[in-house]
Amino acid sequence: EVQLVESGGGLVQPGGSLRLSCAASGFTSGAYWMTWVRQAPGKGLEWVANIKQDGSEKYYVESVKGRFTISRDNAKNSLYLQMNSLRAEDTAVYYCARVLSWYSSPFDYWGQGTLVTVSS
Amino acid sequence: EIVLTQSPGTLSLSPGERATLSCRASQSVSSSYLAWYQQKPGQAPRLLIYGASTRVTGIPDRFGGSGSGTDFTLTISRLEPEDFAVFYCQQYGGSPPMYTFGQGTKLEIK
After folding, report:
1. How close does chain B come to A119, measured CA to CA in Å?
2. Cβ(A51)–Cβ(A34) below 8 Å
3. How many Cβ pairs closer than 8 A exist between chain A and B?
4. How near does any CA of chain B get to the CA of A15, in Å?
């Protein structure tokens, strides 16, 4: 059974940093593009970043470029999101998900999400 | 950037009825790269449909997707109690990757 479990969320002050992790099981995570998607409280979904199977290609939504870094460790079946210079508008539930097939396809499995709150 | 507009914002129906949800794009969606997700309260989204009309394995056949160009539709032929949720459409397929979601349609029990 495919499972994705996020961790690392919490309360952080504006300008602070946080690192999210996503543990994958039930499939060979190194064979798939992976992604992060976020959802502000009571709002819709926003794609954040994608990473290629070997980590050599990374893509970001404009609003997080230069502040967030997606990475992965296939030996540990893990995906990460390093978030720096956090802003109030980054407050959201962050989901990791598996990209269905090719690099720009939809997301077929999702984790349960981890809440990031940016507030003083 | 393609903007997706979903309508209606809220749809109130009874179990057994047919639901029709709309997703309109601000410009043509190439190759019908349009997906639909269902999200229940406190849960992650679940992929239902991709390629505008291809149902994900395990999704009941009462869920159907159609459309092309700028107008897409998700139809639930006969609503079951577990179908009530928020539904999002998503445009994908850009190079480099760029995904946009609609604002969602809440399907509630009447």
Report:
1. 22
2. yes
3. 56
4. 26
A51-91 pLDDT, tens digit per residue, is: 999 999 999 999 999 999 999 999 999 999 999 999 999 99
What is the full per-residue pLDDT of chain B (110 aa) written as tens digits?
899 999 999 999 999 999 999 999 999 998 889 999 999 999 999 999 999 999 999 999 999 999 999 999 999 999 999 999 999 999 998 888 889 999 999 999 99
Of A95, A107, A112, the CB nearest to B47: A107
User: Would the CB atoms of A105 and B92 count as touching at under 8 Å?
Assistant: yes
Find, among A59, A43, A45, A46, the residue nearest to A103 by Cα: A59
Do A20 and A32 form a contact (C-beta atoms < 8 A)? no
Give the burial string for B58-84 (b: 16+ CB within 10 Å, else e). ebeeebbbebeebebbbebeebeeebb
CB-based contacts of B105: which residues, under 8 Å, 6+ apart?
A: B6, B7, B8, B9, B10, B11, B21, B22, B86, B87
